[in-house]
UniProtKB/TrEMBL annotation:
Cofactor: Mg(2+)
GO BP terms, alphabetized: isoleucine biosynthetic process; L-valine biosynthetic process
Top-level lineage group: Archaea
E.C. code: 1.1.1.86
Protein name: Ketol-acid reductoisomerase (NADP(+))
Listed NCBIfam families: ilvC (TIGR00465), PRK05479.1 (NF004017), PRK13403.1 (NF009940)
Residues engaged in binding NADP(+): 34-37, 57, 60, 62, 143
Species this chain originates from: Halorubrum rubrum
Length: 350
C-alpha cells in the first residue's frame, strides 16, 4: 500500500530529532503555579538542563514543595521579571488576574508567554503586546503522568501551537520546550490555539466528562427504576466502564469489539445508536456551537465573577447522586480499589 492509502492524518508530528535544545537551554523559564502541570513542567525542564524559577504566592503551600524538589522559587512577579519564557500554569480562571498583576508589567520585548491551554488567549481574556511570542505546549495528559513518563525515559504526547511569533524563533523555542518536558519522545502534533481550545472544551463537555457521566447516571437510573439492585446497576454502568475504555485506549474500538463476547458486540452494535441517536448528535452540535461562538466562555467567565453560584449547586447535586453513595460502599468492600488508590497517590507524590 502506498502512504496515501494508509494515512488519513495530515497534521505534522514532531519527534526528538526535530527539536534543538539550543533554543531553550540558554534561557530562564518562569513556571507560574506548582499544581498538576506546573510541578511536572518545572521538574522536567530543570532535569533537562533549563534554568527554572517557580512563581508562587508567598502564602502558597506549594512553596515548600517546590523548594523540596530542588527548585528555585520566587513571587510570580519576580519570576516573570527574571524570565525569558513565562509558562502560565495557574488555573485558567485566575490567569487573567495573574497576567495583569504579575506578568504584563514584567514582559520585555522578545519574551515568550507560554500556555498549556488556549482558553484565555482564544477568548481574548489575555491580550499580549505584539512584541512577545505566544506559544502553547499542551501535554495530552495530567501532570503526574508528564512527570512519571519523563522519569521513566518515556514520553507524553503533546500539542504545539504558535499564536504570535514576534521573534521568528517561537516555533523552535516551543519545540525545544516540548522536548525538555518529554513530549517529543512520544510525538507532538501541530495545532492552533483555536483548534486546541474548541476541541478541548467540546471533548470534555460532550464526551469525556459530561457525556460519559450522564450516560452512566442514566443507565444506572434506568436499571434501579426498573427494580434491579443498585449494586448490580453500579457494576454494570460504572465499574465496568474502565475495562471497556482500557481496551479502546489500547487498540481502538476494534480492539474492544474483538475482546467482548459476540453477544455483547451484536447488542452493542445494534443498540448503541438507539441510545445515543440523532438527537444526541444535534445536541452535540449545539454544544459545539456554544463553544465556537463564545457563549460557553462568556457564561463560565460570568459564573466565576458571580462567585460560582450555579457551579456550587451543580457540584453539590452531583456529589449527592445515589450512585456515589453506592459506589463508595462497594469500593470499600473490594481490595483492588485500595491498591489502586495507594498506587495513584504514590504516583502523584513521586
Ligand atoms: P492546578 O489547579 O493543578 O494548579 C494550579 C497552581 O496554581 C497551583 O499550584 C496553585 O496553588 C497555583 N495558583 C492558584 N492561584 C494562583 C495565583 N493567583 N497566583 C499564583 N499561583 C496560583 O492547574 P493545572 O491543572 O496544572 O492547570 C494549569 C494549566 O494547564 C491550565 O491552563 C490547564 O488548562 C492546563 N492543562 C491542564 C491539564 C491537566 O491535566 N491538569 C492538562 C493539559 C493542560
Ligand atoms: Mg522578562
Amino acid at each position: 500500500m502506498t502512504e496515501d492509502d494508509t494515512q488519513t492524518f495530515d497534521s505534522t508530528v514532531y519527534y526528538d530529532d526535530d527539536a534543538d535544545s539550543e533554543a531553550i537551554v540558554q534561557k530562564t523559564v518562569a513556571v507560574l503555579g506548582y499544581g498538576s502541570q506546573g510541578h511536572a513542567h518545572a521538574q522536567n525542564l530543570a532535569d533537562s538542563g533549563v534554568d527554572v524559577v517557580v512563581g508562587l504566592r508567598e502564602d502558597s503551600s506549594s512553596w515548600e514543595a517546590a523548594e523540596g524538589d530542588g527548585l528555585r522559587v520566587a513571587t510570580p512577579a519576580d519570576a516573570a521579571a527574571e524570565a525569558d519564557i513565562v509558562s502560565v500554569l495557574v488555573p485558567d480562571t485566575v490567569q487573567p488576574d495573574v497576567y495583569e498583576n504579575a506578568i504584563e508589567p514584567n514582559l520585555e520585548a522578545g519574551d515568550t508567554l507560554q500556555f498549556a491551554h488556549g482558553f484565555n488567549i482564544h477568548y481574548n481574556q489575555i491580550q499580549p503586546p505584539e512584541d512577545v511570542d505566544v506559544t502553547m505546549v499542551a501535554p495530552k495528559s495530567p501532570g503526574h503522568l508528564v512527570r512519571r513518563n519523563y522519569e521513566n525515559d518515556e514520553g507524553t504526547p503533546g500539542l504545539l501551537a504558535i499564536y504570535q511569533d514576534a521573534t521568528g524563533d517561537a516555533h523552535d523555542e516551543g519545540l525545544a520546550y516540548a522536548a525538555a518536558i518529554g513530549c517529543t519522545r512520544a510525538g507532538v502534533v501541530e495545532t492552533s490555539f483555536r483548534e486546541e481550545t474548541e476541541t478541548d472544551l467540546f471533548g470534555e463537555q460532550a464526551v469525556l466528562c459530561g457525556g460519559v457521566t450522564s450516560l452512566v447516571k442514566q443507565g444506572y437510573e434506568t436499571l434501579v427504576d426498573a427494580g434491579y439492585s443498585p449494586e448490580m446497576a453500579y457494576f454494570e454502568c460504572l465499574n465496568e466502564l474502565k475495562l471497556i475504555v482500557d481496551l479502546m485506549y489500547e487498540d481502538g474500538l476494534g480492539g474492544m469489539w474483538d475482546s467482548v463476547s459476540d453477544t455483547a458486540e451484536y447488542g452493542g452494535l445494534t443498540q448503541g445508536d438507539v441510545v445515543v441517536d440523532e438527537h444526541a448528535r444535534e445536541n452535540m452540535e449545539e454544544v459545539l456551537e456554544k463553544v465556537q461562538n463564545g457563549q460557553f466562555a462568556r457564561e463560565w467567565i460570568a459564573e466565576n465573577q458571580a462567585g460560582r453560584p450555579s457551579y456550587t449547586q451543580l457540584r453539590h447535586a452531583e456529589k449527592n447522586h445515589e450512585i456515589e453513595a453506592v459506589g463508595e460502599e462497594l469500593r470499600g468492600l473490594f481490595a483492588w480499589q485500595e491498591e489502586t488508590d495507594e498506587e495513584e497517590s504514590a504516583e502523584v507524590k513521586a
